[in-house]
Amino acid sequence: MDNQFEKMAKVCKALGHPIRLNILDLLAKQEEYYCGDIVSLVGMAQSTVSHHLKILKDSGLVETEERGTFVCYRVRREKMEELSKFLLAF
User: Fold this and answer.
1) pTM above 0.90, yes or no
2) pLDDT tens digits along 52-88
3) What is the helix (H) or strand (E) element at residue 33, kind and residue range?
4) What's the Cα-to-Cα distance from 65 to each of 26, 33, 34, 79, rounded to whole Å?
5) Among 30, 39, 47, 49, which is least packed, fewest CB within 10 Å?
């Protein structure tokens, strides 16, 4: 199987949950958020939000930056563009 298909399948799988879509939408509308901010916005437990953020990060849709004891999250726009081009090719 083509490696590109495997990568895009992982991205699509990451998008396959409403909480992750909500988190991605929040991040897309804001330059960046700390994990605690996202927890407050989605109204879920920190462990649940962290789990979903990890899946988004592992798929390449989200990147992190550590700032002291805090982790800042932001959308990887280039990955979103790559996904868009991949889907438009069908």
Assistant:
1) yes
2) 999 999 999 999 999 999 999 999 999 999 999 999 9
3) strand 33-34
4) 17, 10, 9, 17
5) 47
